Amino acid sequence: MGGCGLACWRCRWLLPLLLGLAIIMGIIALAGRGWLESESEPYVQQASLWESCTRREEDLNWSCESLMDYGWGKAAAATYLVGFVILVICFALAVIAFSIEILRFNFVRGIGGLLFVVAAFQIIGLVIYPVKFTEEIPLTGDNMFSWAYGFGWASTVVVIGCAFFFCCLPNWEDEVLGNIKPTCYYSSPEKAPYLN
């Protein structure tokens, strides 16, 4: 009986797939209205990255104000959006890098460096938003930073993980390119009679 590990080259699409997942979570964060919501009924407050909405308990219509009227609102949206755009560029570069037969490992390390820049921009936006929002926007009732804000952080965590992998990938160049033989482990029948 023997078991050989799969060649890493077959798994090369895992990192671009993770970057695609980070993009999807980033889109949800950018489009979602759940950055801040009322914690319990009556639901009278909700906010996105772009606007803050409130309503009275008996009213069904939301009254919204743009967060782009505030300097911090523009800064939070701009930094998160710039990080997202660079993330999309990194995804395209990763697909190109892993599509060509001769993988350029310095190119891959450059993608990792760009991903750290993405993470920095996104973290800045994700920190500015709650700090300044709670300082400058009057809140009604008990509120919590909700699902869309969580997707923003999830996207950032995936980006940081991918950045480390992209930067470290050249250290395993031979394994990834399949230049070494896979290690196979065999057990003799005398040592393992139960395999017969």
UniProtKB/TrEMBL annotation:
<feature type="transmembrane region" description="Helical">
    <location>
        <begin position="110"/>
        <end position="131"/>
    </location>
</feature>
<dbReference type="GO" id="GO:0030057">
    <property type="term" value="C:desmosome"/>
</dbReference>
<comment type="similarity">
    <text>Belongs to the TMEM47 family.</text>
</comment>
<dbReference type="GO" id="GO:0005737">
    <property type="term" value="C:cytoplasm"/>
</dbReference>
<feature type="transmembrane region" description="Helical">
    <location>
        <begin position="151"/>
        <end position="172"/>
    </location>
</feature>
<keyword id="KW-1133">Transmembrane helix</keyword>
<keyword id="KW-0130">Cell adhesion</keyword>
<dbReference type="Pfam" id="PF00822">
    <property type="entry name" value="PMP22_Claudin"/>
</dbReference>
<keyword id="KW-0812">Transmembrane</keyword>
<keyword id="KW-0965">Cell junction</keyword>
<dbReference type="GO" id="GO:0006915">
    <property type="term" value="P:apoptotic process"/>
</dbReference>
<keyword id="KW-1003">Cell membrane</keyword>
<dbReference type="GO" id="GO:0098609">
    <property type="term" value="P:cell-cell adhesion"/>
</dbReference>
<keyword id="KW-0053">Apoptosis</keyword>
<dbReference type="InterPro" id="IPR004031">
    <property type="entry name" value="PMP22/EMP/MP20/Claudin"/>
</dbReference>
<keyword id="KW-0472">Membrane</keyword>
<feature type="transmembrane region" description="Helical">
    <location>
        <begin position="12"/>
        <end position="32"/>
    </location>
</feature>
<protein>
    <recommendedName>
        <fullName>p53 apoptosis effector related to PMP-22</fullName>
    </recommendedName>
</protein>
<dbReference type="GO" id="GO:0005886">
    <property type="term" value="C:plasma membrane"/>
</dbReference>
<dbReference type="InterPro" id="IPR015664">
    <property type="entry name" value="P53_induced"/>
</dbReference>
<keyword id="KW-0963">Cytoplasm</keyword>
<feature type="transmembrane region" description="Helical">
    <location>
        <begin position="77"/>
        <end position="98"/>
    </location>
</feature>
